[in-house]
């Protein structure tokens, strides 16, 4: 039912403004990192793929019923993440009911988030998503995930969690997508790099709203 409502909202985008949320998680990590990222992505999506998303995203706690107000949640940070039992129950229900979570590793998140995802869905493992998948082939076509910053010489990768065949989570690793969405002055990324990052972010939003 929740998935149906999300799709219905997308189809009626000309009438209803949609909202996206920023996940406020426990553990002490900087869930609030990259404050200009999601607002910039919303602006780009509204202008280029004709979404109508409320300009200012709201933060929402993992164990709050309010997460069900958002078809997509964004999550980033550099440090520790911890999901307690109430977080796991709520987030699992959200994702299996039609919600979607995008996680952007802001360098340092990886060793924490993988452990928490195993707690969230112990029966499912992160899988690298092939570039034939629709998430890479929305308005914009990608044959590789944009790499915004270089850290360890590793390739940028997109991982996903699939529940009953449906992609419920996209995790960009060694890509720093959300850094690429930030104001230019924050990281001094070249315009073409920021453009690619925003295009991939718009693809994620478009995929979620259509599927």
Automatic annotation (TrEMBL):
Keywords of this entry: Signal
Residue span, DUF4159 domain: 21-209
Highest taxon in the source lineage: Bacteria
Gene3D superfamilies referenced in this protein's UniProt entry, alphabetically: Domain of unknown function DUF4159
Leader sequence segment: 1-17
Keyword Signal: yes
UniProt-listed InterPro entries: Class_I_gatase-like, DUF4159
Protein name, entry field: DUF4159 domain-containing protein
Phylogenetic lineage: Bacteria, Pseudomonadati, Bacteroidota, Flavobacteriia, Flavobacteriales
């Amino acid at each position: 039912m929740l998935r149906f409502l999300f799709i219905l909202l997308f189809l009626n985008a000309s009438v209803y403004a949609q909202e996206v949320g920023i996940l406020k998680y426990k553990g002490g990590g900087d869930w609030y990192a990259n404050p200009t990222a999601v607002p910039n992505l919303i602006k780009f999506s509204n202008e280029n793929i004709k979404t109508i998303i409320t300009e200012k995203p709201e933060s929402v706690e993992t164990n709050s019923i309010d997460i069900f107000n958002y078809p997509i949640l964004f999550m980033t940070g550099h440090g520790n993440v911890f999901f307690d039992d109430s977080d796991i129950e709520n987030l699992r229900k959200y994702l299996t009911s039609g919600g979607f979570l995008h996680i952007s590793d802001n360098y340092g998140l990886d060793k924490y988030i993988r452990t928490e995802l195993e707690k969230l869905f112990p029966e499912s493992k992160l899988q690298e998503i092939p570039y034939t998948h629709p998430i890479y082939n929305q308005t914009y076509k990608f044959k590789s995930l944009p790499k915004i910053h270089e850290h360890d010489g590793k390739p940028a990768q997109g991982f996903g969690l699939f529940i009953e065949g449906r992609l419920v989570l996209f995790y960009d690793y060694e890509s720093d997508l959300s850094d690429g969405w930030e104001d230019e002055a924050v990281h001094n990324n070249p315009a073409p790099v920021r453009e690619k990052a925003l295009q991939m972010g718009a693809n994620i939003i478009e995929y979620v709203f259509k599927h």
